[in-house]
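Exam revision sheet. Question 4 asks you to relate a sequence to its structure. Input first:
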Amino acid sequence: MELLKAESVDKKFINHIALDNVNVSIPENSIYGLLGPNGAGKTTLIRIINRITAPDKGKILLRGKALLAEDVQKIGYLPEERGLYRKMKVGEQALYLAQLKGLSKRDALTRLKYWFEKFEIQPWWDKKVEELSKGMAQKVQFITTILHEPELLIFDEPFSGFDPINANMLKEEILELKRKGATIIFSTHNMGSVEELCDHITLINKSKNILEGQIDDIRQEYKSNVYEVSFNGEMEKLEKSLNQHYEIIDKTKSNGNHAVRIKLLHQTNENELLSLIIPSVEILSFHEVIPSMNDIFIKVVNEHKSN
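Answer key, C-alpha cells:
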C-alpha cells in the first residue's frame, strides 16, 4: 500500500531547475532510497515533502490525499545539516523539540530517558550542545527525530560523522523502526548502506528521476552475463578451452590460484561454459557477477550525462 506519492513535481529557482516532472511512489512500511549526485534535486524534494517550500507544479499525496500543514506532525525529518541550538543544554533542548512535536512533558521525559540510556548519552543531559562531539550531537538529533513515533521518517545522510560501530548501531535502529511499522525515506551517497537497508530506490539526476524500482530487480536488470571462475590449474589451458562465444574480461592470480571473469556472448549459458572448462582446470568457485548499486549508480549517471 502506498503511503506517500510525488506526482509530476516541478521546482525552479532563479537560473536553476531543481525538479523537473519528478514522480516518486513510496510503499508503506518500506525503506526507500532517494539517491543522486550533489545538486541533483533530492534535498529540494525532501523540503517539499516537509512543506518547507512548495512545488511550482505537481502535488504531494499522503495516503492518497493532498499533504496538509497538519500532516507534518506525522513526519520526522533528520536533515543533513544538523540544527541543534549550541548554547542550550542537551536535555532542555531535546524536551523542547519533543513538545513541539505534540508530546506532553511527562511522555517526552519518559521516552527521552529510555533513548538516552539506550544510546549511552544520559551523562550529557545537563551539558551544552557545543560540548558534544559531532557523533554525540547526531545521536541527540536522531532521538528527537523519532521520539514522537511518526509514520514517515526522512533521514538525509544519517551516518555522516559516525564511526563504524555507531553507524552499525544506527542501522539496526532504522531496521527496528521499519519492523515496528514506520516508512522511511533514506537519502545517502553510501551505496553500501543502500544495499543493506533499502527495499526500493529512486535515482534523481539533473532534476529528473532516471531510475526507480526494487533493489533486487534493478541489480538483476543491470547484470551483463559475466561469471567469475576461481580455479586451480594453468591459465593457458582455460583460455584454449573457450571458443568465440566467450570473452575473458579480467584475470587475476592469488596464492597460486587463478580467477577470471568471463562474459557470455551469442546466447550461450553458464552450463555450456562449465562444460568447456571443467575438463581443463579444477574449479574452486563459480558464480554470476551481479553489479553493485555503486556500479549501477555510476553507469546510469554517466549515461544520463551523455544524453
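Marking note for examiners. The chain has two domains: 2-220, 224-289.
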